[in-house]
Amino acid sequence: MRYYSLNRQSETVDFRTATIAGQAPDGGLYFPETIPQFPAGFVEQLPHLEPAEVAYTVLAPYVGEAIPEAELRCICAETVNFPFPLVPVANGISALELFHGPTLAFKDVGARFMSRCLGYFSRSETRPVTVLVATSGDTGGAVASGFLGVPGVEVVILYPSGRVSPVQEQQLTALGQNVTALEIRGNFDDCQRLVKQAFRDQELMQQRRFTSANSINVARWLPQQVYYCYGVAQALAQTGKPPVVAVPSGNFGNLCAGLLAHVSGLPVARFVAACNANAVVPAYLTSGRYAAQPAVATLSNAMDVGDPSNFGRILELFGNEYPSIREKLSGYSVSDNETAATIRRVHQQTGYVLDPHGAVAYFALEHYLARNPEAAGVFLETAHPVKFPDVVEAATGREVAVPAELQTLMQQPKRSVVLAPAYEELREYLTGQLQESSVTA
Ligand SMILES: *Cc1c(COP(=O)(O)O)cnc(C)c1O
């Protein structure tokens, strides 16, 4: 498989180069030259296939010659070694739970696949590889856990001090080994600015090989197709008809992966792009015009994105034809009040505890089903509610219990290096002049 840049200035590359580079030299996103079709009978067999087999079947055409078959099968097995249950919540609505991975977020799937691919590629690198990421919460944890213990790769994560939840902070700071957490005395924008500045620092970039583990990386984007296959197979078995799938969206990588699986042959009646107040895509679906906006802060903060980076991939997938996009995709923007009220109401009526991101998708799906009552609805539950305890506990009036798998991690000591939001400090740290890790309680 070859990948071209959506800016169409750079040369095409293979999966290895696309994964290591993240973004094309012309600044564009990589996109596969052809969309492979699932093998005949694949959808019918899905309920009987092993998860690793499904992942291998979906991903092998995209990886091509870049990774030998035995190695790729191993990577696939490690990527999807946790369940993706479809749980009925209310009449005509089921949750596809994507939070049973090590950091309780759907990003585990992309991060695990990408880290193992990079680990394989780094075996033939002479310089050590450092993964440098800024996180507002979920991304960093999934990336850290994905790369934990991968030989030849160091991970440095910048997060805003005091602005991530306790579970998220433990997932960033308590792992140890090859993962270092830099606690920045600033906000998420500061963290992102520092990382961008580091990538522009030519002198620094020559010392080691830096990579961004960014959400636009093809190795994070493509494996997300796998759980759509599971979800749809379970929905078909339960209702006999292709479901309508609502996806809580920020950068739109997740939704775009679902669309990709659909174009490859997965039966889905329609997708619903569920957004919070950051609604540029729902606005595009209504008007046909796309206008990026500054991001605004909401309760579903992993979706606070004003210019979704994967939107270009959605356009490309539909040949830039607005009518074809509208045929497959509806959009809806959900306010913070509606999000909190949905968590409260669904908990009262069904006992199910939504996280704020799942609640946005739930509400958007209800809105769609009100006009299309015969449809079978599935929404993606992208994170465990314990990662957003303030919002969820305020809405339900109950404490969210920490799942057993997390108890040990919650007891580990936190280790972070506290830095001012100034580039000189980050640079000093990265060039090894600031070795001492400070331990905070
Ligand atoms: C990242 C994230 C999203 C948004 O996913 P995109 O692929 O960026 O659209 C939704 N929910 C949660 C919990 C997330 O962490």
Automatic annotation (TrEMBL):
Residues 97-368 form the Tryptophan synthase beta chain-like PALP domain. It catalyses: O-phospho-L-homoserine + H2O = L-threonine + phosphate. It is an enzyme of class 4 (lyase). One of its GO terms (molecular function) is threonine synthase activity. The keyword Iron does not apply. One of its GO terms (biological process) is threonine biosynthetic process. It holds the Pfam family Thr_synth_N. The keyword Amino-acid biosynthesis applies. Its cofactor is pyridoxal 5'-phosphate. Its EC number is 4.2.3.1. Residues 2-78 form the Threonine synthase N-terminal domain. Pathway: Amino-acid biosynthesis; L-threonine biosynthesis; L-threonine from L-aspartate: step 5/5. Keywords: Amino-acid biosynthesis, Lyase, Pyridoxal phosphate, Threonine biosynthesis. Coiled coil: none annotated. The modification N6-(pyridoxal phosphate)lysine is found at residue 107. Belongs to the threonine synthase family. This is Threonine synthase.
